[in-house]
From TrEMBL:
<protein>
    <submittedName>
        <fullName>GDSL esterase/lipase</fullName>
    </submittedName>
</protein>
<keyword id="KW-0378">Hydrolase</keyword>
<feature type="signal peptide">
    <location>
        <begin position="1"/>
        <end position="26"/>
    </location>
</feature>
<dbReference type="Pfam" id="PF00657">
    <property type="entry name" value="Lipase_GDSL"/>
</dbReference>
<dbReference type="InterPro" id="IPR001087">
    <property type="entry name" value="GDSL"/>
</dbReference>
<dbReference type="GO" id="GO:0016788">
    <property type="term" value="F:hydrolase activity, acting on ester bonds"/>
</dbReference>
<keyword id="KW-0325">Glycoprotein</keyword>
<dbReference type="InterPro" id="IPR036514">
    <property type="entry name" value="SGNH_hydro_sf"/>
</dbReference>
<dbReference type="InterPro" id="IPR035669">
    <property type="entry name" value="SGNH_plant_lipase-like"/>
</dbReference>
<comment type="similarity">
    <text>Belongs to the 'GDSL' lipolytic enzyme family.</text>
</comment>
<keyword id="KW-0732">Signal</keyword>
Amino acid sequence: MDNVIQSRKTLLLIWISLSTPLSVQSRCTTRPVIFNFGDSNSDTGGLLAGLGLPIDPPNGRSFFHGESTGRLCDGRLIIDFLCESLGCGHFLSPYLDSVGSDFTNGVNFGIIGSSILPEFVPFNLNVQVMQFLQFKSRSMRFAMRGLGTHYDENVFRKALYSFDIGQNDLSNAFDDHLSYSQVVERIPSILNELQKAIQTIYDQGGVNFWIHNTGPLGCLPQKLSLQSKAAAGGFDRYGCLATLNAAAKAFNDGLSSLCDKMRSKLSNATIVYTDIFTIKYDLIINSIRYGFGNPLTACCGYGGLPYNYNINVTCGHVGSRACPVGSRYVSWDGVHYSEAANAIVASKILSTRYSKPQLKLDFFCNAT
């Protein structure tokens, strides 16, 4: 009975977080401009704008009423909730979107499928950084001429630079049938490239960085449906692939150490490292407490239990079906989290308990 009561309370909290903007938690008066770099976990329409690839319903059904916003989710992403928490007037527009873009809140360079390495592959991290450099250069020229609402040097200095990328580097390596040791051997070079990106932005005057680590790769229904027990090294007690999660932890340990090193190296820089892995893994292992059922099953997909994921019939394609109540699922499409799960993740991020140092997001309001 206690579990039932707790589950109902959690469902109520999820409903409140989904229907009420998180901006009530913010004390912002002057909101920071945000420049985001990432992959599908934070893409608000970049791939749709850049390549014209359709991202069809039921994506977007929970919040955007079926409109194709380019998000791989039934509603809002973590970055959307974080923007809401600051009281932003609208979500981040993709850099590549030529219609309806509004960059007053910042710019989203993140694009579905992006990784940190290799370099010069659209739209991997160093390409996103080059796009930022181009955006900054042109904005400065327009600002000097007094044209439009483009940013000046002061705005770029006070801006918040967020990073949510690295999952695809690990995912792609395992998809290429590399062993755990081979994947781990790649991590230093991956992190070195991320360090170069941060250093480049710092050299351009940026001093505020918000960095997410990567989530529990071995708990994604996609990976569970494709990896055999023998190849993956077995399952943990919650049904996730142990080796893939171990690789994610190795990456995160290295990323945490990198952030520590860069704090001491980059004078006047504020670098917040946020432990997304622990937050997301908690949704899996304590799914009942959060009101979720079958935490390793995709809401939208094909194949039924246990994972409802088929690489040939993914969400939005002919033959796939979506569950009636997405708020009961952690996973939306086997790779990306549902809006309900994203709302919980965002609320935990905003609590500061999972960040190092434990700074609130609105610390970056009125940055000097």
